[in-house]
Hints:
Pfam families: Ppx-GppA (PF02541), RTG2_C (PF23566). This is Retrograde regulation protein 2. Residues 2-188 form the Ppx/GppA phosphatase N-terminal domain. By secondary structure, the chain is mainly alpha-helical. The protein has helices spanning 33-46, 48-69, 73-81, 92-103, 122-125, 128-137, 145-164, 178-186, 189-192, 196-200, 209-218, 229-234, 246-254, 264-272, 288-301, 308-319, 323-342, and strands spanning 2-3, 8-10, 13-16, 19-22, 27-29, 85-89, 119-121, 168-173. It is built from 17 helices and eight strands. The strands form three sheets. Strands 1-2-5 form a three-stranded antiparallel β-sheet. A hairpin with a 4-residue loop joins strand 1 and strand 2 (8-10). Helix 2 crosses helix 7 (145-164). The chain is elongated and about 80 Å long. Mean pLDDT is 91; it is low at 225-235.
Amino acid sequence: MDLGGGSTQITWMMMQGGSVTLRPGAVSLPYGAAALSRRLEEADRAGHHAQVELKNEIKQAFVDAYESLDVPKELIHAAKENDGFSLYLSGGGFRGWGYVLMNQHRVNPYPVPIINGFSVSRRDFLDTISVQEAARDEEIFRVSERRAGQVPAVAFLVNALSEALPPIKEVRFCQGGVREGFIFQTLPPSIRILPPLATATLDCAPSSTSALVQLLQSALPQFPYNAPAKHHILAPANHTPTILSTDLLTAFVHALFRHRSFTKETRAAAALRCTTTGFLAGVHGVSHDDRVALALLLFERWGGAVSPTDLGFLDRMERLTSPGTVWWCRYLGRVAQLIAGVYPAGRVEEGRERVGVEAA
């Protein structure tokens, strides 16, 4: 969904094997943040019955819009298997809502100042009372006075959506506009499917990236990814998180030597912040989970020690992910530190390997 000032659009999107399929055209409805604010003010003056009528109007409009979308059966089936759809939100009205949710996060202050890739559960997204109270009583980063004034209208829309749309499991906030989307569509499929972080780090990649990635992967025990959740926390050695994908490890290896020109006391700290305010902060299409994992990996690769000024930031980054993921990032980061010491130029000569890694 996209929420502008005068209208909101809804459509479906599906990705299979790296190929993105979009419905030809979105359904547009006259419930933008500014337009709905005016409608809501009129309804407030008219009384409670007018508010009920407006909410019913919006609900019915979205029910009809969803029916007209002709959502593919395979997408509906995937949503049923995953306990609901993922709802991607763009537009200034929704981004303002996202920044308020970020301000209300259990990890506070939230360490990733980027709305793109921020995700929340259905329950948090629908907590309209808390969001409205925060927008009214607090000064929030990236929420202007105008956006704060539109929060009641967005809350009204969110309440109506919760009753009109099919089950939503998670909500992801996006950043970008028509210009970025148009330019992205002009790229060939072979470029569009490239993983963002691995692509953004290509300029500093060592010559033997593939061999170094294989070394890291050989350090990971081949435990099943569907291990019980309790093992993820109590015994992380029995479960390697799926977030440590080949794409993420490739980006890790690409950036393995990125901070070696820094002084010893700043390398780990600079690496820790590289995905939030450093050289990878501007990468689009990256979840906050991936940003945190890559930052923790690079932080540990440089020794995992920071000055007291960065300890609070480190703690908040670790609290954004699971204890199991933190454990594996520490482990794999230290393995990478060893490998980088053995191959200081990032070059592995075939047939003349200096080290091998094996996980029992």
